[in-house]
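Justification of resources, computational component.

The compute hours requested in this renewal are based largely on the per-chain cost of generating structure records like the one below. Each record pairs the submitted sequence with a full structure-token output. That output is archived, and it is also reused by downstream analysis tasks.
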Amino acid sequence: MLKKVYKDLFDLEGTSGYEHSIRAYMKNYMEKYQSYDIKTDGLGSIFAIKKSKLIDAPTVMVAGHMDEVGLIVVGITEQGMLKMNNIGGLNGEVFVSQVLNVHTKDGVIKGVVGALPPHLKKGQNTNLSDLILDIGASSKEEAKHFGVELGNMILWDNPFFYTKNQNRLISKSIDNRYGCGLALETVSHFDGIELPFHLVVGATVQEEVGLRGAETATNLFNPDVFIALDASPVNDALDKEALGKLGEGFLIRMYDPRNIMHQGLLDYFVKLATKHKIKYQHFMSLGGTDAAKALDMNRGVLATTIGLPARYIHSTAAMMDLRDLDAARNMLFKVLKDLNPDKIQKLKEANS
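The structure output for this chain reads:
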């Protein structure tokens, strides 16, 4: 069964730049653990910091990201229809006939997405620019009277449920409230435990629009090791040869276009997972995580991702397997219990 903290986070709504409810939840959770200080950066990323008693201790940073993909109001037509733009990578096909929530200062307004009928379309693709959100207004003035403003966030209700296979569930925002939830589990797990490094654990903002929070947070904490916690898209439902499958363990992201995994770190992860019999999968992606931003910050950072396999991310609902979450949790905790200053230094030297 999924722990409550994850369900709570899945239900919260927050796209890039609108992460305040997730940040408030995480801050409230962190404040229960007295061995940490809490710090936010100028963009709104939030972290709990446990200082080591060792002199000149290195810093290990663990980060999920708070934002989910979604939409924003960018126009109101004379007929009272809302024009939308995506925040993060989304395809128009996902939204045809979907019921969406417009978050205004006065509360949530529901609407349905409309599009040209297929026989009136000039092309086969559905772009977001082709779509309108119908909230029942009869004019621009009425839509404004309802409280709609340009810049309002648009999201959707969470369809959360377990499948007939009780190891698997469907939810919105698995990408990346998984990372936020595991970060909070880490805070509670290591509360009161002395570590041979400074532990910085929490979540960034605006990952889905350019890894922005990772840059400001990495500048703030200057970590020696950065571990991103993020959900990654797997295509095992359609391609039996695909790298990454549900139920087969956490993902070791050996390659994406902005982060080719440090060979010493790759070897360390494989050996540690094998030693502790933690299921893992080699993985490659055409997208990036916050680790890609941390990698080339400052003088260079040991940066990688502990990935959760997920089907259908960057849509209104995705699927995950609880056994993969268990593997990701076990791996993260084993890494944090195993690292020390000497091992971190040896890892840094492994590619030299």
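DSSP finds nine helices and 18 strands in the chain. The longest helix spans residues 322-338.
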